Amino acid sequence: MKVLKKLFIMVCALSFLTLIGCSNQLNLSNYVSQLKSNIYEGTFNDLTVMANYGFIEDNSANDGVVNKTNYYLTVKLLNKQTDYSTYTLKFCQDGNEYEKKFELNPISNSFSATIFISPFSANSFEITIINSSTQQVVKLNSILPKNTLTPEVALKKLQEQQPSLIKNYLDENGNFKAEIIQRVLVKDNHPYYYVGIVENSSNTKAMLLDGFTGEVLAIRNVF
Question: What's the whole-model pTM score?
């Protein structure tokens, strides 16, 4: 009986260590379904422009499952809210030319255009804004401060600081059972990361991380 008891304890201990080992080897970046990884700003004459770059999954839904992702660039005209002109965005990258008409976003009250593109890593680039017969070239520069953590490193920092939390989303085989929404933010020249771990549409764990250190600053449940 004592031998069986010891054997049972050993099996339980090995199972626990295996689960912890899977957690340590887990790459949370593989479970990101929505990502905003860079923010750009630029001005030219009377144009003030902001852009976001990242990716989003096909048929996006908060269901805990990550589908195929597509990279995008969203460009906003910040000071044209009362302008009734028609604006068009042109953007060239890797020999491909993209064109999209701006539409008024009722939520942000700004003209915006989103184009799906191939991945790129530039910290500055040029776009063309067309208004009637006028074309203006605007250079956009990343506003992320130097030494901002990459999205991948930020998630590793989260995993290091919150192993018990991450473990709650692992099944018995060490598989992650949720999807992650990750967005970089900049306030007062300081970067932050919003990270939302989504099991389903009514259960999200939302966290705010310091973009320089990866320190978890806040955690809350969103229902």
Answer: 0.84
